[in-house]
Structure of Phage protein:
Amino acid sequence: MDYVIELDRLRKHEIQNLEVKNAEFPQFREVWLQQKDRDHIVGEAQRNGDVIYHWEEKEEEELE
């Protein structure tokens, strides 16, 4: 999976969630760490080690 493209789709609200399987997390993390706005990309861990990410808008004071 091309996580650069998928994160861009998440950012543009073309998708609501991005599910990252436990085994794919290292590849995802490498791309995620390069994102300037990664604090908007919020993940919720699942019991099986997978993570479901969504885009979360931040208030101006939160960004400072």
Q: What stands out?
A: The chain has a mean pLDDT of 92.
